[in-house]
Write the structure tokens for this entry.
Amino acid sequence: PGLELRDPGLLKQDAFLASGWTASRSGQRFDVVNPADGTLLAQVASLTAAQVEQAIADAAEAQRVWQEQTAKQRAGHLQRWFREIMAHVNDIALILTAEQGKPMPEARGEVAYAASFIEWFAEEGKRAYGDIIPAPQSDKRIAVLKQPVGVCAAITPWNFPAAMITRKVAPALAAGCSILVKPAEQTPLTALALAVLAERAGIPRGVLQIVTGDAREIGAVLTASDTVRKLSFTGSTEVGRLLSEQCAPTIKRLSLELGGNAPFIVFDDADIEAAIEGAVTSKYRNSGQTCVCANRFLVQDGIYEAFVERLAERSAELRVGPGLDAATEQGPLIDMAALQNVQSLIHDAVEKGARVIVGGRPHPLGHTFFEPTVLCDVDTSMRLAREEIFGPVAPVFRFSTEDEAVALANDTEYGLAAYLYTRDISRVWRVSEALEYGMVGVNTGLISNEVAPFGGVKQSGLGREGSRYGLDEYLELKYLCMQV
Ligand code: ADP
């Protein structure tokens, strides 16, 4: 559909199962559209519940064989998959941008970021060391083994159609688990392209399956299954809560990466140009549709006006357009519902006294394009102080003291990412330690990489992804007590 792929074989519309590329037994398909112009990109198989049940059984069979391979053999498969992806970065980025909307440089960046998890966990899988513990009795010996959890399921969102998949699949596979992935209905094509390359890399059938279709129905089958031992979910807190309830009867292991409400704190002593750069990166990446995007700018009295003015200037300069255009710096929002949510948050804030400094409206390009927006005179009575904006809107709050900033920052049920800008090293430590967040960016607006533990506290989630800690999420401990 107008996509100039070097390798057209990457574009798939069927589900990827143990039996190969498979249509739905019901014949049903769902539409995937380009958010930049509403055109139809593909019609993807909507699997039946029975097909998903079968996929789970196949995953169990494949896992038994997969866990018998050595970690080094599994690493070999992952390394080949990594190289396949890196050899097709541009094609995958084209597919990703077509279905998701982000500008091509961001899409290429995401594909490389996604691949980095595969490379990382290929290595980490070899280091799933156990332990020998000095026993409390002289005739006992105690050993601790790490073993794969078993069959895993992943449910992933549309905002990072590649990275949110590899961040779960790579550690699962490295640990010796098999995994079924239910990608977001808006962005299944990237998931399927990654599966094409997994197949070419020789990853055995059934170890990785992409189960496309109705979220609620597939989610119900995956969570109810006794065979599925773990669910890893990235998405909204609301759906995370629901899935966690659905997993309770079978006591599944859970990893949840949920919503955020990131504070971006700028103190009077900050390097203001650096803070503005960080603010633009953190706020407008992916049109504001990331769970670590700055949601609330908290700026100290002394530089409040200057910060608002500079941020507004920089925001107005951003070139909005289709992600496939080379000049674009900000793409469309994912769909009309997202646009309406952003509009209603702005409306609520303005009604309660906020001022729009720049933007504030749907972009003249139409569809789901929205103007980069800066609001000042915002306060905590407004919905955007509590809710995840998930759009290109920067509300700037004012504070006077450090204590006030910390209290404001922590005044939310979320606890994913926080940012602070200051040149005072004591304050860096004090504030970082006081923030109830899983991740803190200090004088930077960009914190995600494969070597660090990504994750949140409070209602932002459970568990960590990436880093050496990310592997533990897919391993069980087994303790051996030996009489000698
Ligand atoms: P977002 O706001 O990012 O779309 P969601 O939490 O709605 O976040 O979606 C994240 C993922 O969860 C997507 O793959 C979506 O299809 C899936 N999902 C949404 N609702 C359910 C549900 N009731 N059961 C299972 N999966 C769901």
The pocket of adenosine-5'-diphosphate is lined by residues 155-158, 182, 184-185, 215-216, 219, 235-236, 239, 242-243 (CB under 6 Å). The mean pLDDT is 98. The CA atoms of residues 102 and 331 lie 5 Å apart. The first helix runs from residue 49 to 66.
